[in-house]
Write a structure and sequence with these properties.
The structure is a single chain. The protein is mainly α. It has a domain of about 160 residues. It is globular. The two termini are about 15 Å apart.
Length: about 240
């Protein structure tokens, strides 16, 4: 992807982080159909683009000496990414329950920073990939931007609901900065393909978990037709480009 186009995309991602919390129509039950469509788009992108890309990374890294064992377990890293984000969500939920029974501002602050810090690394990876990701055609970058853009909206709404004032005051700014720092890193330097493959794997696992945790809970009253529509529509688009 060209530096100029990637810069436009990173500005778009930054704007999403700064302003998505102000779209009040997305905060309602039953869950906004737009968010279910966004979830479907993100999942389709993971299975039709990111996971196949991991297979390419495995082939490229063959024979890397001490890395030769790990290179054949790249999908394990995607699984670790999924488990990591699942564990993080459980940690946050238990923290909220603990806070209801006894007030502990310092404990809550610690949970917030761990949660946001993990998503900052997530964003750094995406910012870096904006520059260094290789696409086979001119529409590929736009597919990347749309899939991750709607995914960011879903994540932002969820983080804002979980952390409220802390997210508004600190979280969204940290996420905005981290994606820009990732982009700058991609412009100035090139990481080893082994590291990039792990970033993509963790990202794939994280996206799957973050979508499922929003769509599956009964209290969300999510729309399966909207989710399915997002999956089918974006699958068709990805197969055509």
């Amino acid at each position: 992807m060209s530096t100029e186009l990637s810069f436009l995309f990173v500005v778009g991602f930054m704007a999403i982080h700064l302003f998505s919390r102000h779209v009040h129509s997305l905060r309602r039950n039953p869950r906004s159909q737009f968010l279910s469509i966004a979830g479907g788009i993100s999942v389709a992108y993971v299975f039709l683009h990111l996971l196949p890309e991991l297979g390419d990374f495995q082939r490229e890294l063959e024979g890397e000496g001490v890395l030769s064992y790990l290179e054949h377990h790249i999908y394990l890293i995607a699984l670790i990414g999924l488990v990591l984000f699942y564990g993080l969500e459980q940690f946050v939920k238990k923290s909220h329950k603990h806070r209801e029974h006894q007030s502990s501002i310092s404990h809550h602050a610690g949970v917030f920073w761990v949660h946001i810090g993990t998503f900052a690394l997530y964003n750094f990876s995406i910012g870096y990939l904006l520059v260094r990701e290789e696409f086979t055609d001119s529409l590929g970058p736009w597919a990347f931007f749309i899939a991750l853009g709607v995914h960011f909206i879903t994540n932002d709404i969820s983080l804002d609901e979980q952390h409220d004032r802390d997210y508004a005051k600190y979280g969204r700014w940290l996420l905005t900065a981290s994606i820009f720092i990732g982009w700058i890193t991609g412009v100035l330097t090139e990481l080893h393909p082994f590291i990039v493959s792990y970033l993509v794997a963790l990202l794939a696992g994280g996206i799957i978990l973050n979508v499922m945790k929003e769509e599956l809970p009964e209290e969300r009253e999510s729309s399966f037709p909207a989710f399915l529509g997002g999956v089918v529509a974006y699958t068709v688009i990805l197969l055509l480009i």
